[in-house]
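sorry for the late reply, my laptop died twice this morning and i had to redo everyting from scratch. anyway the thing you sent over, i finally got around to it. pasting the sequence first so we're on the same page, its 436 residues, then the predicted structure underneath. double check i copied it right bc i was rushing
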Amino acid sequence: MVPHSPAGAPRRAPLPLYLVACRISRGVLATALLVATPVLAQASASGKPTLGQVIQVTRAAIGISSPSDIVSWADVSPAWADGTRGDGWVRLDDAVALLRWSLGIDPMPPDSSPVRQWHEVETVPGGIVDVDATRILYVEASGTQSVLKVRTRGKDADQAVETVADADAPVYGYLTPAGALWVAPKVPHVGMEFDVYEWRGGQVRSLGTLADPSSMVASGGRALWAAKGGWELLDLATGQSSVLSVGSGSGADLSESGTLVYASDTDHRIYRSVGGVATAISDGAYVSEYPLTDGTLVAYRQRTSGSEELYRVVLWAPGGEVFHTDWVAVAPSPGLGYQVLKGWIAYSVPGATGALAAWLKPPVEEGFRQLSPFGEDRQIVAMAPNGEVALYRGLRVVLTRRSPQETEFGSNAAWYFWRDGYWYKAERGVLSRFEP
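ok and here's the structure:
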């Protein structure tokens, strides 16, 4: 049976350390520390104790038998947010300090994580559309016309791609090995239709009209979008495109490794394609749609059919479904409602109070971590492979690291993304990096 979560919260969510501490009398403290410290010291004789050893010994010392009753030190402070000091080990003095805090003896140990701030790295005279290691794609607007340009990073060298009326400016797009790819209103205007445009070899061409204007994604040397004739796949190196054999359903995604996932409107299933071989990973019991993938995991939304539609988030991994949330009346959207990255999944669904609660599941741990304060709305902005998640908090964005502890991150008007070991944000033509 696949475990699921009541009211959006995972069924097997571990008990936070401060709640565990409330169940422990002061009389147990001496025994707990006397037992834990020498065993941890012995475990560290040939190095430092692993996080698993810390949890196991502490659990034994305070008489808690269930692994789900205690969580890793990552839930206590961002200083230990990766469970280690970055090298896969937990320092003995850190473990003891956190154990003493969890039992109410000492104040919270100071967070020794380096203080990071936003540092400006590049500025362009327009709105940033996409960024790679050497270029910035941006739109410079004059009030009547908009010019799509490519800036060579580190230089004031700009190349104009196309000039259009402000009303026809690109909505979103990507830099590609051959140039750029973007979505913009169809010209001449035909209702509210949008086309895919490509800049290749110094020339701009239309690649066709979209059935869903928000459907285009580009990653791993390919681009994919919902055309009126089905899912269209473009090889960014050669410029050759092909149409998948299934009709265009609701949502698709590409991973850097080349894995393709898409929803079919013929049987309402999610398909995963690796090496050109597509396999259905969801059954037809419910309508499955809007898949996202990191190459291995696939997260998608399911909904019931009928007069009252209900929704849930499903996580799939090779071998089958991993978990799903409870059915709710609010539809979680891809991106804001769920994301996957390098084995992590973050999702935001209504909790017991009705507020959108954000949760995180690490790659190897069985438990889940709540990222949002109880009773407060949080939705997902972006994820990083170290477990950090940026969340919308009203008009602001906050950064969390495996716990509800939040760091002010910036305005909700910026675009946030992780690349090459750093957080970046693009806001009003300014590209900044989050670093010490």
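The radius of gyration is 24 Å.
thats about all i looked at so far, will dig more tmrw
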